[in-house]
Amino acid sequence: MPQPAAPGAVPPAPPLALELFVHGVAGAAPGELLRDPHPVRVTGDSTAAVFRRAEDADAEAHPERYAGRPVPEAYCWSRLTSGNGARALWLLLLPFMVANLAHWARPATAPGGPPPRAVRAYGLLVRLLALSLTVLLVAAACEVALDLLAWQCAGTPACTGTRSWTGFLRPGGWWAQPGRRLALGALVPAALTGLLWFLSARTWSAYESQPPPDGAGGYGGPPGSADASDGAAGAGDAGGSSGYGDAPLGRPGFWYGRRIVARLRAAHTAAGLLTVAVAVAAPALREDLASGATGPAAAGRAVGALLAAGAVTVLWVVCRRGRSEARPDHRLDRAAVTLLPAGALALLAVVFLYAGWSRPGWVSTGRLPGDFAFGVLMLAQGCCVLGLALVARRLHRRTPTPGAALGGLGGPAAGLLGCALGGVMSGGVAQRVADWLDGAAAPGTPGDPLPGPPVLLSWQAAVLPPLLLALALVAAAAAVRAAATRRRTAAAVAAEYPGAVPDPDRSRRIAGARATAALTDTAPWFIGAVCVLTLLLGAGALAGAWAGGEVPAEAARGAHPLVAAAARLAQDSGSWLIGFGMAAFVALGRRAYRDPASRRTIGILWDVGTFWPRAAHPFAPPCYAERAVPDLTWRMTGWTARTGGRLVISGHSQGSVLAAAAVWQLPPGTRRRVALLTYGSPLGRLYGRWFPAYFGPGPLAALHRDLDCWRNLWRATDPIGGPVTDGAGPVPVDRGPLPDPVAYGRDALHPLPAPILRHTDYQADPAFAAERDALLERLAAAVAAGAAVAAGDGVREDAGLPAQRISKARGAPADPPGTAG
After folding, report:
1. Is residue 28 very low, low, confident or very high in pLDDT (cuts 50, 70, 90)?
2. Which of 108, 271, 519, 636 is least surrounded, with the fewest CB atoms within 10 Å of its CB?
3. DSSP letter for each residue of 117-138
4. Where are the transmembrane segments (predicted)?
5. How many whole angstroms separate alpha carbon 344 and alpha carbon 266?
6. Please, which residues have CB within 8 angstroms of residue 541's CB and are 6 or more apart in sequence?
7. Cβ neighbours of residue 288 under 8 Å, at least 6 residues apart?
8. pTM above 0.70, yes or no
């Protein structure tokens, strides 16, 4: 029994309470979060760190100063996505990022049990789709460097005669032979592949190499341990069960994907080098077969066999293994990681020697066979997307998720958009380089001195104007609907504020803010329309390119004059649109490289798109959450274990997603001392719809059961935040919609007009402080009850170590192995 305090003894100071702020997209300065001009860094580095006010730096040494109030603390992570200027170059990796999202947007599955075959098939198809994007990017670089420059321009006197830098390629020189020119031009796509490998390896070491808190949380095994579920193709795609029920983000290895990233990086690097090798070897082999040279033809066939073997090996590596999440997997597949890129590089060197062999009679004419290559690649991507749609639909029918975006087809939609972005970027670069090389002539027309890029790229450009026109009509319909909603709701706004005098202008502004925020809920159908139109028009472009073999304007020359004029207009305007888009893209990246404000704006895109680990594409921009989530987990686990205090983690917008992910990673003993306060949170409204397997109703309900102290604030005028649960449970999570503005008109408390805050400044609402204080009180009661149970069992409850014994004392089943330290 506890001993009574001695007469006159000073009662011990109550344990500290800590409020840990986590900002959202676009970041926030530490002084802004803490409302202090001179914050100090408590822990962390120049990239991500925890800050406090100067007077609170030694709060643990003087807990008596903080009776009745928490110690404010801020975790700032914005420099993970919008730091130095080099990150502006990540814009070029946008298709890879969108394709990586397709992995995480798969439909939910039933909790517990082994992953179904459909989940493994889904992960396999996404990885193959991501691999095709790498091949597409390198093939586009080959089209520019090998076809347009080394083959067409260098083989045309009209092109080389006007450019001094191509003088060494003119007839009569050693480099004049086409094979040698192709080998020289291949250095550009090979260097691009090497750059992608370097960026992926460098960003891994800087962003994603933070291990989870094994020592504090008791997760996983020692370095070198492997997930027992690995072995079959995509075995780790579902992550296994590992005792975390229907909360996938609670798996110990979720935020540590070193093995799969290294494996995929090696495979994609080898695929890029093999693509370059095929682009160089194919024309040389075709020439040798046509000329009847027995020796070179035999050598070419041997090289082709080696290239085919390399391609099969790359596919085997990509298909063999998916993510493993049951425990942190520190092992590397040394053979694949080291030998695969090295073998592909050696094979590329052999191809250079083969292509550089002297062939005096060889002359470069026409185009390289890019139409066939790009067409096959486009067809393969379309088949992968359709396969993803079939698998996703099957998963969604098996485990329906209310509110899932596009009926469970969010993942296939993301994959299709990634392919479309890759195609537009590839076509735009090829079109612009062709325009630059042939001067005033239009690429692919009879008066053009150069054949120009593949016909398929011209067809892709031609379908862009109809696509944009259709999307403009869809957007206009959504705007008309929003205007009607604003008119309908404006009349009832004043009635929500008791005693307010109606003001039509004020009501229209408030109703307009609500109608604009509601447009977020129509985004899935807009994206669905984009995907359907893209798929249909892309299929039409492929059929047109393969059927006629001519650019759209030439294919429609003999048709009705209106049809011919429309085809010419679509081709020309599409070419200009692609060119303008690429120029704007490059200008935006250049501006972001120089201007920190623009770089911060671009960082908002990465805040949303790079939250997820690189599970499908290793060349995607790095995942900042693999640094931020372990940071927060270490901080909460270490602080509560050291002080025995209570902690409220307070997350705004994207910060609420990081906060929830970190809470999922906490051991049960630490979780009993932690409360979660979210506001402006996209957990349910965006992440729950687009990523139902990880933030759907099931996982969020599980988080609510495991973390009773959770409150969420939201506004009807907020286009991002919303409710996160359906209201089930003994204690509701959501509070809202909060009034916005807080006052309709002027009164004694608000003498000036109150602003419509939308997604900002939730801390200014009186509900914020009230809910935070209520969470701290509930935490105090829960900690006291846990301590009483632990004292009755003869155990001291600490950072999760006696969690199983406490569960037994309460009559509940013990925590499963691996969930408590």
Report:
1. confident
2. 519
3. HHHHHHHHHHHHHHHHHHHHHH
4. 125-146, 182-199, 266-285, 297-318, 339-357, 372-392, 404-425, 457-480, 523-547, 576-593
5. 10
6. 456, 459, 460, 462, 463
7. 296, 297, 299, 300, 359
8. yes
Cβ atoms of 651 and 678 closer than 8 Å: yes
* 3-class state of residue 713 by DSSP: strand
CB 571 within 8 A of CB 551: yes
| Helix, strand, coil abundance in the chain, percent, nearest 5 | 60, 5, 35
Q: For residues 591 and 599, what is the distance between their CA atoms, to the nearest angstrom?
A: 8
Is residue 672 helix, strand or coil?
coil
Question: Are the C-beta atoms of residues 809 and 797 closer than 8 Å to each other?
Answer: no
Helix (H), strand (E), coil (C) string for 338-402: HHHHHHHHHHHHHHHHHHCCCCCCCCCCCCCCHHHHHHHHHHHHHHHHHHHHHHHHHHHHHCCCC
Distances (CA, A) of 296 to 286, 290, 291, 300: 11, 11, 10, 6
**Cβ contact 408:396 at 8 Å:** yes
Q: Which residues contact 307 (CB under 8 A, 6 or more apart)?
A: 274, 277, 278, 281, 347, 351
Q: What is the pLDDT of residues 549-561, one digit of tens each?
A: 777 777 777 777 7
Which backbone phi and psi does 678 adopt, to 5 degrees? -115, 150
Rounded Cα–Cα distance for residues 185 and 174 (Å) = 15
Is 328 or 217 the better-scoring residue by pLDDT?
328
CA distance 525 to 282: 44
> How much is the average pLDDT of 591-611?
69
Paired tokens of 331: 């092992």
Domains and CATH numbers, the chain: 17-76+624-789 (3.40.50)
Summarize the confidence of residues 794-818 as an average pLDDT: 37
pLDDT in tens, 2-27: 455 455 544 555 678 999 999 988 77
Q: What is the mean pLDDT of the chain?
A: 82
The torsion angle over the Cα atoms of residues 775, 777, 782 and 788, rounded to 10 degrees, is 170
Whether the upstream peptide bond of residue 443 has omega within 30° of 0, thus cis, is: no
Q: What angle do CA 204, 30, 661 make, to 5 degrees?
A: 50
Helix, strand or coil for residue 518? helix
Express as a percent the part of the chain with pLDDT over 90: 39
| pLDDT tens profile 247-285 | 788 888 888 888 888 899 999 999 999 999 999 999 999
Q: Alpha-carbon dihedral of residues 683, 688, 689, 690, nearest 10 degrees?
A: 90
Give CA–CA dist 21/76, Å, rounded: 8
Sign of the CA dihedral with 303 first, then 309, 314, and 317 last: negative
pLDDT of residue 223: 35
* Cα diameter, the chain: 109
CB 441 within 8 A of CB 449: yes
Cα distance between residue 657 and residue 583, in whole Å: 34
Helices (H) and strands (E) in the chain, counts: 28, 8
* DSSP type of residue 90: G
pLDDT at 70: 93
Q: What pLDDT score was predicted for residue 562?
A: 80
Query: From CA 359, how far away is CA 295, in angstroms rounded?
Result: 12
Report yes or no: 253 and 324 within 8 Å, Cβ to Cβ. yes
Q: Directed axis angle between helix 561-594 and helix 455-462, to 10°? A: 90
Amino acid letter at 746? R
Identify the three-state secondary structure at position 51: strand
Place of tokens 């929830």: 660
Torsion, Cα of 566, 571, 576, 578 (10° steps): 120
Give the β-pairing of 710-715 and 734-738: parallel
C-alpha R_g of the chain: 30
Any idea what DSSP says for residue 436? H
> Which of 328, 394, 409 shows the shortest CA–CA distance to 120?
394
Taking CA atoms, 422 is separated from 136, 162, 579, in Å, by 7, 32, 14
In which element (H, E) is residue 113 found?
none
- With contact defined as beta carbons under 8 Å apart, do 13 and 63 qualify? yes
Hey, how many other C-beta atoms are within 10 angstroms of the C-beta on 416?
A: 29
